[in-house]
Amino acid sequence: SSRRTKHIKVRYFFVKDKVDNKEVEIAHCLTEEMWADLMTKPRQGKGYKQFRAVVMNCPVEYSDQDELLHEAKYDAQAKREGHIKTSTKHDTKMTTEQAKG
């Protein structure tokens, strides 16, 4: 083997030794079952929704609008309970003037 392919030979025999010693079992997986493909290959439609559901632990028919509504309700409740301080135009103006001065 040449210098250019020596690393391939080393990796191949490393994996082959692990398989021969029964430390690793190699199994064929279909592209449709490869969850990591979501990050490397463009998916559309149903395939994308199924991958997203597994990775994000959400329903297959997940909607961004539903999430935005949920966040708005959560933020409104947090403001009512005093967990989030709301800023006013006056506060922003004072901060801007302080930054200038």
| Overall pLDDT confidence | 76
Secondary structural class: mainly alpha
Radius of gyration: 27 Å
* Largest sheet: number of strands, sense, barrel closure: none
| Percentage of residues in strands | under 5%
Share of helix among residues?
55-70%
| Weakly predicted, low-confidence segments | 89-95
Strand tally: 0
The succession of helices and strands, N to C, reads HHHHH
Overall geometry? elongated
How large is the count of helical segments? 5
Taking the alpha carbons of the first and last residues, their distance comes to 71 Å
Characterization of this structure:
This protein is mainly alpha-helical and 101 residues long. 62% of the residues lie in helices and 0% in strands. The protein contains 5 helices and no strands. The relative contact order is 0.05.
Question: What topology emerges from the helices and strands here?
Answer:
Elements (H helix, E strand, L loop, with lengths): L2 H18 L16 H4 L4 H12 L7 H17 L8 H12 L1
Keywords:
mainly alpha; 101 residues; 5 helices
Provide a concise account of the structure shown:
This protein has 101 residues and is mostly helical. It contains 5 helices and no strands.
